[in-house]
Design the sequence.
């Protein structure tokens, strides 16, 4: 197991982490092996078109149902990935993966591990594409007597964890993908930069698909119009591509991506200390990447004293 940690003290609880979440036994990665070495670009699902629908299994209860609807609506303002909420197919406590889907769960997972939200990306047998994901919201903090028992903290955490499922990394902007403690209470939704990043991740097409469900065909423009305006559009696309490349370089300048093999297992440059990323290999050979968002240490201590 490789650890890319953003709070070194939290490594003390990682040994108990797998047992607490009822995970399958994990085997260590081979020396020098990382998921990044298998996926040289970024983590992504396989699909045969650049725009696709990703099913989100609803395994939540209480106020989480309306919040899930709201967060999905926020993410669906982009064009690349459309989340579609469907009936859940796992228990809240175990929150097991289901191939081709994202399963979202809430439960009182406990304060002893100190995490608010958790996302797991399960890769296919070849290790080159995500083929399942789970998102877990910890009600022991988010729906209990802690500073995180607010609508803002719940919305941010769900938005943040769901954003990891199509492959988004962290940012330092006012997006919900910002993982700082300040962002937990203030950055509640994705922003246009997140949608542009998803466009970059999924601008290519794959020959296979790891996404469940029938996909809508992308609309094609009238051929005559395409021929007439083709040169103008190609010029515009070239300019946009140049801007995207420059913007991508700028975005990466401040925070080294997790997905870069040179950043594992070292702490990413410029990152803060609120999330840990684990790269694990299951006994069946599949690779799993886990994003763990930590609660503030003072909140963890307070919650522990109340239990």
Sequence:
């Amino acid at each position: 197991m490789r650890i890319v940690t953003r709070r070194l003290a939290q490594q003390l609880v990682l040994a108990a982490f797998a047992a607490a979440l009822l995970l399958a036994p994990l085997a260590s990665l081979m020396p020098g092996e990382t998921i990044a070495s298998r996926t040289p670009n970024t983590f992504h699902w396989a699909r045969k078109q650049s725009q696709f629908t990703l099913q989100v299994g609803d395994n939540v209860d209480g106020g989480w149902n309306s919040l899930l609807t709201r967060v999905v609506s926020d993410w669906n303002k982009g064009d690349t990935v459309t989340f579609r909420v469907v009936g859940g197919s796992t228990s809240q406590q175990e929150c097991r993966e289901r191939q081709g889907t994202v399963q979202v769960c809430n439960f009182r997972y406990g304060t002893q591990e100190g995490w608010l939200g958790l996302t797991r990306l399960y890769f296919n047998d070849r290790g080159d594409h995500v083929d399942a994901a789970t998102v877990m919201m910890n009600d022991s903090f988010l729906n209990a007597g802690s500073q995180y028992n607010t609508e803002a903290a719940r919305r941010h955490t769900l938005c943040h964890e769901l954003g990891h499922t199509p492959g988004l990394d962290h940012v330092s902007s006012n997006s919900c993908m910002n993982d700082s403690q300040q962002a937990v209470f203030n950055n509640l939704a994705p922003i246009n930069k997140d949608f542009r990043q998803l466009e970059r991740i999924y601008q290519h097409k794959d020959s296979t698909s790891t996404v469940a469900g029938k996909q809508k065909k992308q609309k094609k423009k009238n051929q005559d119009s395409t021929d007439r305006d083709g040169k103008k559009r190609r010029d515009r696309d070239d300019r946009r591509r140049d801007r995207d490349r420059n913007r991508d370089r700028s975005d990466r300048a401040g925070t080294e991506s997790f997905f870069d093999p040179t950043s594992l297992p070292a702490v990413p440059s410029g990152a803060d200390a609120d999330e840990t990323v684990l790269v694990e290999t299951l006994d069946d050979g599949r690779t799993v990447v886990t994003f763990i968002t930590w609660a503030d240490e003072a909140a963890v201590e307070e919650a522990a004293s109340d239990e």
Q: What stands out?
A: Confidence is low (pLDDT under 50) at residues 5-13, 15-41, 221-228, 245-273.
